[in-house]
Design a protein that fits this description.
about 220 residues, 9 strands, single chain, alpha+beta, archaeoglobus fulgidus dsm 4304 fold, 9-stranded mixed beta sheet
């Protein structure tokens, strides 16, 4: 029988309510205005994390606008936090930060496999932005709990407020859900991700390359 989130938190001695308060407090620092023009972006970062046994692997790549890889790094850490829905950052954030800190090429923006402001408190993309002081965009294959799609099928709503956009990046495939993490507007986040899609891939090319690199890393370190 699957344990509830409360049971998992209690088992690991995690104060869920305290973490919720922290998320809401940090969310007040988010800025949903463009901190740079899309035309000024020359280095694009993309990061993804994978759980393998009792370890977490975070892989980050930096590429140019033509999807040529400038640098790639990874960090492997011991898994210290259980899976609890809505608290993914507490499980993955430290290893993501360590991977980014290894970069020599500092990106202008980072794409994150996860949620930005579509999260009702603080999504992974937003949390990461505050931690590394870079604009971020969240790209997800699924809606967060409580999200709805507008009648026109274009916008993501949370409590009737627009928090992201739906991108049909590949025909006959489920859409992507795009939301700003921090320091970028909803429209700019959508337009930027849309510009990075390269058929036949569904994901924007930098994230596709990050996922591909992650598989190489898993083979390299034999996990």
């Amino acid at each position: 029988m699957e344990q509830s989130e409360e049971e998992v938190a209690k088992k690991f001695g995690i104060d869920i309510e305290a973490l919720k308060r922290e998320q809401l407090k940090l969310a007040k620092e988010l800025k949903l205005k463009d901190s740079l023009k899309l035309s000024e972006i020359t280095k694009i970062g993309a990061i993804a994390s994978f759980i393998v046994k009792n370890r977490i692997i975070s892989t980050v790549i930096v590429c140019d606008k033509n999807s040529e890889i400038l640098e790639q790094q990874y960090f492997v850490d011991k898994l210290n936090f259980p899976y609890i829905y809505g608290f993914r950052a507490y499980r993955e954030l430290n290893s993501m930060i360590e991977a980014i800190n290894k970069l020599n090429e500092r990106p202008d923006i980072i794409l994150v496999s996860g949620h930005g402001i579509t999260h009702p408190r603080l999504g992974l993309a937003s949390h990461l932005s505050l931690a590394v002081n870079l604009p971020t965009i969240g790209v997800s294959n699924s809606l967060f709990e409580g999200n709805k799609v507008s009648e026109n099928g274009e916008d993501i709503l949370l409590n009737n407020k627009k928090v992201g956009k739906v991108l049909q990046s590949k025909e006959k495939s489920n859409p992507l859900y795009i939301s700003p993490g921090n320091r970028i507007s909803i429209e700019s986040a959508y337009e930027f991700i849309k510009s990075l899609v390269r058929p036949p891939h569904k994901m924007p090319e930098p994230l596709h390359l990050s996922h591909k690199y992650a598989k190489e890393v898993q083979e390299e370190i034999n996990v």
